Amino acid sequence: MAPAGCTLDTRGLDQQLDRYRRLGTTAVSIDEQALRLVITFSEDVDVDLLRETVAIERSCCGFFALGYDAADRRLSIAIDDPTRGDALGALLSALRAAPSRAG
User: Fold this and answer.
1) Which residues contact 51 (CB under 8 A, 6 or more apart)?
2) Mean of the pLDDT values across residues 8-19?
3) Which residues have C-beta within 8 Å of that of residue 86, sequence separation ≥ 6?
4) Got the DSSP string for 43-99?
5) Cβ neighbours around 71 below 10 Å, total
6) Residue 11 — pLDDT band, cuts 50, 70, 90?
7) CA-to-CA distance for 41 and 26, rounded, in angstroms?
8) Distance (Å, whole) CA 57 – CA 43
9) Model confidence at 34, in pLDDT bands (50, 70, 90)?
């Protein structure tokens, strides 16, 4: 079930979380903070997949503040409302569920 404020239906949410799982296979570090995740990807990251994931996230979940530094292959995802921690946690779980994630 999508978190409150997310416009994805169940299928769309499943697909988005799968994109995060796939991205997680190239995550070399995940810096988990209370209201923010910072993920650094290896040179092998699928840039098209990453751009698609970020674009979908921006369109469906306006409560996330997203930033991507292409030079450092670093994605930041932040929330300003602690009650949105479950949504951030779902992304973290998906990233960590990647079967061959390094780091």
Assistant:
1) none
2) 94
3) 3
4) TT--HHHHHHHHHHHHHH-TT-EEEEETTTTEEEEE-S-GGGHHHHHHHHHHHHT-T
5) 5
6) very high
7) 5
8) 22
9) confident
Q: Coil, strand or helix: which one is 30?
A: strand
Residue 2: per-residue pLDDT? 73
Structure tokens at 53: 């994931």
Q: Specify the DSSP class assigned to residue 2.
A: P
Q: How many CA atoms lie within 13 A of 9 on its CB side?
A: 1
AA identity, residue 83: T
* Fold of domain 10-96: Gyrase A; domain 2 (3.30.1360)
CA nearest neighbour of 75 among 29, 22, 35, 8: 29
- Record the tokens describing residue 12, joined without a space: 């769309």
